[in-house]
Amino acid sequence: MSLLVVDPGHLTLVQDAGRPGLGDQGVGPSGAFDRGAMRQLHALLGDTEAAAVLEVLAGGLRLRAEADHLLAVTGGIGSVHVDGEHIEHGRAFVAHEGQEVRLGPVELGLRAYVGVAGGIDVEPVLGSRSADTMSGLGPPRLAEGDVLEVGPPAHAAEVEDVPALLTSGETTVPAIPGPRDDWFTDDAVRTFFSAAWTVSSRSDRIGVRLEGSELERLASDELPSEPCVRGSVQVVSAGQPVVLGPDHPVTGGYPVIAVVLDAHVDRLAQVRPGDIVRFTRKHSG
Questions:
Q1: Which fold has domain 170-281?
Q2: What pLDDT is stored for residue 220 in this prediction?
Q3: Which of 27, 130, 145, 151 is the right S-S partner for 118, CB 3.0 to 4.6 Å?
Q4: What percent of the chain has pLDDT over 70?
């Protein structure tokens, strides 16, 4: 039971739920950037929460089924075809032995997720099959000619279809101020929560880089490295915010002006360069 990679597209990675809880060993969490899209695949295919999927940046992936497989595509939306036949996004479909599954360019969102019943069966590293682009842990990015082994299906599908979890052009996410908002002027904090930030083309799984007004510091001291979590909004030396993604370092020396609520970080997996991101202020507790 396997799939042959005919064309890996721009960047396709194997991802699962990641490696949480290893920060004290210097290991970042990694895992699927859009966890909601991955959970949708598990429900469509009857897979367990641990099943690995493919995260496809911008589309272009082509796979050939080496046996009959049940697959589904969620996340970023673009055309999906099996031997030229159009397939609905967010619904499970069968690719028979020898048939080719082709993902066109992602037109809404940025990252598509492809699952196969049974999950992608690559060797786990530290308990996870996720590719970490910063540390290099986990399987390498897909390449032409790779053969992806598929595990045994777990159980019957839970749902027949799922909705798209996307917004287009502008995304607003809630964030809690701090823990280092006191390193910035009051005007800078107000600007952070009121401005329309533009997504930079330099964004990746390590961090979503934003461009806009410079956020002025009150403190000019260097901050000792301290632990970071997914969704932390660091402000780099140029005064621009970066929202940390799944492949973030476990510590950082840039002050964190706010932290995006974890349940909303997934939405930033689908923002495209040039899109607008806004933050709304939430209070802890």
A1: Cyclophilin (2.40.100)
A2: 77
A3: 151
A4: 100
The domain segmentation of the chain, as residue ranges, is 2-149, 170-281
For residue 91, is pLDDT > 90? yes
Determine the pLDDT at residue 168: 74
Could you confirm whether domain 2-149 is CATH 1.20.120? no
Rounded CA gap, 87 and 80, in Å? 5
- What single string gives the DSSP state of each residue in 49-66? TT--EEEEESB-EEEEES
Is 130 in contact with 16 (CB distance < 8 Å)?
yes
Joined together, the tokens standing for residue 16 give: 């699962």
Quick check: pTM over 0.70?
A: yes
Query: Considering only CA atoms, which of 131, 137, 78 is closest in space to residue 103?
Result: 78
Q: Given a cut of 70, is residue 285 above it in pLDDT? A: no
User: Under the phi-then-psi rule, with left for phi > 0, alpha for psi from -120 to 50, and beta for the rest, what region is 151?
Assistant: beta
Strands 53-57 and 100-116: antiparallel
Question: What tokens were used for 282?
Answer: 């939430």
Q: How far apart are CA 114 and CA 51, in angstroms?
A: 12
